[in-house]
Amino acid sequence: MELWYTEDQNNILRFSYRVNQSLHVEKTPFQHLAVLDTVGFGRMLVLDGIVQTTVWDEFIYHEMIAHVPLNTHPNPKKVLIIGGGDGGTAREVVRHPRVEKAVMVEIDERVVAAAREYLPELSVELDNPKLDLRFTDGIKHVAASRNEYDVVIIDSTDPVGPAVGLFSREFYSQVYQALKEDGLFVAQTESPLFNTDVLARICKDVGAIFPVVRTYLACVPSYPGGLWSFTLGSKKYDPLEVKPEIIPALGYRYYNLQVHRAAFALPQFLKEALGQG
């Protein structure tokens, strides 16, 4: 008998993944957590019924959410990661040579515990001396920070459950205050195909606060529609003006200078939805 895991995208569309076996299931104090061994995608992390990452294609998402902002800022010494309990974003951040310290704030300790046990490829750097891992509310941490970080990376789940507040204009204003005078931030901002309205609202909210706002895309096959968006808000630096000489040679699997530049070329329907003509 074949086993399948099905994610409900909306009331007209579902995505299914063939499963070998369920490795771990629990209800944490914050959300439903599952780790599945799938055919093709390998081990998969699922939170509240939504696929978060798989060992087969996680490098695409994590390289793009981390290295685009880190290489846009010329000297990202101190970095804040909100969420990212699987450890993939932290892994990419701490290997960047100009990063001296990364603070990772994850609200759900059980996600990290599951990643340590079942996703060692992602969680491998969670004990790196550069990383300060804290289990607390990311929104509260940001609200209490002032002029502290060069780069903030919001690696959140979808805007449901504990992540709802990470998609508000009020939160983006607090991120602005937490950043240094030339700081910048990036957030995962959902599917540009199925969540266009959410992405458009985010861009409008970020644009009301930051002088530089750019949305970029990456292909993440395990995510609904295969196309995913990230939105960057910057006080000073424009990711379209990144200098090739500052990009370190880190043996990327997806990211490179050409991908960095091309990721900001948006299809016409999305430019119009975001008010860019």
Shape: globular
Secondary structure: helix percent? 25-40%
Number of beta strands: 12
CATH homologous superfamily (4th level) name of the largest domain: Vaccinia Virus protein VP39
The CATH architecture of the largest domain can be named as: 3-Layer(aba) Sandwich
The residue ranges in which pLDDT falls below 50 over 5 or more consecutive positions are: none
What is the percentage of strand-forming residues?
A: 25-35%
CATH class of the largest domain reads Alpha Beta
Distance between the termini: 51 Å
Q: Radius of gyration, Cα only, in angstroms? A: 18 Å
Number of helices: 9
| Strand order within the widest beta sheet | 8-7-6-9-10-12-11
Function: Catalyzes the irreversible transfer of a propylamine group from the amino donor S-adenosylmethioninamine (decarboxy-AdoMet) to putrescine (1,4-diaminobutane) to yield spermidine.
Keywords: Polyamine biosynthesis, Spermidine biosynthesis, Transferase
GO molecular function, one term: spermidine synthase activity
Domain PABS: 2-235
Summarize, please.
The protein is α/β, with parallel strands linked by helices and 277 residues long.
